[in-house]
Write a sequence for this structure.
């Protein structure tokens, strides 16, 4: 298609910039508010620039709320879940993609079928189950039920299917067992898919809210999202502190995303699924 | 040992852990939800079988129908708008002379990866009735300030705005992928025939994009049906129950009133409804959807 005239092109660019600013306005406003002093927050018209140039709101927020604790907890839980899923999803995906055995299709259906069961539906019984297992209020409650995930299995299986069988056959003739093949042949070729899956899993658990809200009732064990939103509802008008703690929960992920966004965006266009 | 037996042992070795977790933490709870829904149970005293009592109570209670109604309004507010805006952004970014496409795409996608809970705290601040940014900006356009989250009429609108904001980027990426699948030759042929930009959009882009549009619409329909975090953080179902969507209704009954049987009946009804939506999606798209 030919390029439209300069005026049209300029209009489109200006429009896109306006939209980009509008969509991200909440984040700009969050950061600006996190760098204001108490009184400036309530000035009308609002001040569109920071009025304190240090981290005092952050320091106070960290003193009042155990944000550091939440961060460590969240990193630990999201990291553990991601590592465990890398192991168990890979195993299942490999078995489903590469080994012919009776019942394979049924197992695939059973695993992928869990995508039809939204977490809201199993919230109550999962809570009961986890309580019976004595895991409430512990990291186990946040990790154990999520050690494998149908979306991850599906994504990896689809990827493994695209790897030529001949590679595997060659390795088998050389006397490699299945585990060796998985480790030495399949995994090195699957790095993009593994990355995508790991990123999705980590993000989903960094952002998780509903499950920790019901499973954890102990500030020392809480995850960041529930922790800071509970704090926000207790300190209703402390906007500077609320925005400082939201900044801590949001900005690291945005920065991280800028580095890895290609994987993310490819991930959804491959699978058409989210979280 | 025969090759077949060997493969069977190996196959099961690889899939069993994952399958076990799915059975234990998804299917067992799902079955248990059905079971509990026929009982009265507050988790303190023993369960008591009540037959269909919970379902009858639910279907005859005004609150249940109200929560469905609120959910429906939320769906109606978020789905069409976010789909159309996502499509428009995708069309803008798909123009081949555009530079900086990747940067714009990333900027538009940020809300999708952001945690809804933390973002909802920020939106609370934007919707603040006296010194909030949104009322201030609306003032420029001569729109009277609103009480937003404190006003039974406007609270749901606020939640809808947040919902749209969160999803546009996601829809845009799916539409961008859909647009890539339309062969360029179609457009070239249409240009030779002298079709206008709008005619090309209407007669080529839109029809060929329809599987994507359907897919995006149903995905968003289900996502809206499940809305919880923004409600939980911003309104807790209030004011005056005006934002009590079905998931929040379930959560309240389970964890505030400890009516586990009643809450499980809500969960079962939600499951049946979502199952129907998903089947509808498969039926309507019939393999036309573009996952590999």
């Amino acid at each position: 298609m030919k390029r439209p005239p300069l005026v049209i092109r300029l209009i489109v660019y200006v429009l896109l910039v306006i939209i980009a600013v509008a969509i991200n306005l909440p984040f700009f406003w969050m950061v600006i508010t996190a760098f204001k002093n108490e009184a400036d927050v309530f000035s009308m018209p609002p001040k569109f620039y920071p009025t304190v140039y240090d981290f005092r709101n952050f320091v106070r927020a960290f003193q009042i709320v155990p944000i550091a604790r939440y961060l460590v907890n969240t990193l630990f839980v999201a990291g553990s879940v991601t590592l465990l899923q890398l192991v168990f999803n890979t195993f299942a995906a490999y078995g489903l993609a590469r080994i012919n055995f009776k019942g394979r299709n049924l197992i695939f259906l059973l695993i992928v079928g869990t995508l039809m069961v939204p977490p809201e539906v199993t919230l109550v019984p999962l809570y009961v189950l986890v309580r019976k297992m004595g895991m409430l209020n512990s990291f186990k409650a946040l990790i154990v039920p999520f050690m494998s995930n149908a979306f991850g299995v599906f994504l990896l299986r689809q990827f493994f299917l695209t790897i030529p069988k001949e590679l595997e056959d060659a390795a088998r003739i050389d006397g490699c067992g299945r585990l060796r093949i998985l480790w030495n042949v399949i995994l090195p070729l699957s790095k993009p898919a593994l990355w995508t899956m790991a990123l999705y899993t980590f993000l989903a658990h960094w952002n998780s809210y509903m499950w920790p809200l019901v499973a954890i009732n102990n500030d020392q064990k809480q995850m960041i999202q529930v922790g800071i939103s509970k704090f926000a509802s207790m300190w209703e008008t402390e906007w500077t502190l609320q925005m400082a703690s939201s900044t801590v929960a949001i900005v690291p992920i945005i920065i991280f995303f800028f580095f890895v966004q290609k994987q993310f965006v490819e991930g959804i266009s491959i699978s058409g699924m989210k979280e | 040992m025969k090759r077949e037996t060997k493969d069977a042992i190996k196959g099961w070795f690889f899939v069993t852990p994952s399958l076990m977790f799915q059975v234990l933490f998804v299917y067992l709870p799902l079955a248990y939800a059905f079971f509990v829904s026929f009982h009265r149970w507050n988790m303190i005293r023993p369960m008591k079988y009540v037959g269909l009592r919970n379902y009858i109570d639910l279907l005859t209670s005004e609150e249940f129908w109200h929560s469905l109604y609120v959910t429906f309004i939320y769906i109606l507010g978020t789905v069409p708008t976010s789909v159309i805006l996502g499509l428009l952004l995708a069309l803008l970014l798909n123009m081949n002379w555009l530079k900086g496409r990747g940067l714009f795409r990333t900027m538009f996608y940020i809300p999708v990866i952001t945690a809804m809970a933390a973002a909802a705290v920020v939106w609370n601040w934007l919707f603040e009735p006296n010194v909030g940014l949104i009322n201030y900006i609306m003032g420029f356009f001569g729109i009277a300030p609103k009480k937003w989250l404190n006003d039974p009429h406007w609270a749901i609108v606020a939640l809808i705005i947040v919902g749209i904001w969160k999803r546009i980027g996601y829809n845009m990426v799916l539409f961008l992928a859909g647009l890539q699948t339309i062969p360029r030759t179609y457009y070239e042929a249409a240009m030779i025939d002298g079709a206008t930009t709008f005619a090309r959009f209407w007669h080529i882009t839109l029809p060929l994009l329809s599987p994507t549009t359907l897919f995006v619409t149903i995905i968003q329909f289900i996502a809206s049906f499940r809305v919880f975090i923004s409600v939980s953080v911003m309104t807790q179902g209030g004011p005056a129950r005006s934002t009590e969507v079905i998931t929040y209704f379930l959560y309240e009954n389970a964890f505030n009133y400890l009516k586990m049987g009643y809450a499980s009946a809500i969960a079962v009804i939600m499951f049946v409804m979502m199952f129907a939506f998903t089947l509808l999606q498969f039926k309507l798209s019939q393999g036309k959807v573009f996952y590999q």
Notes: The mean pLDDT of chain B is 90. Residues 55-285 of chain B form a domain with the MetI-like fold fold (CATH 1.10.3720.10). The beta strands of chain B are 39-40, 48-49. The CA atoms of residues 62 and 68 of chain B lie 10 Å apart.
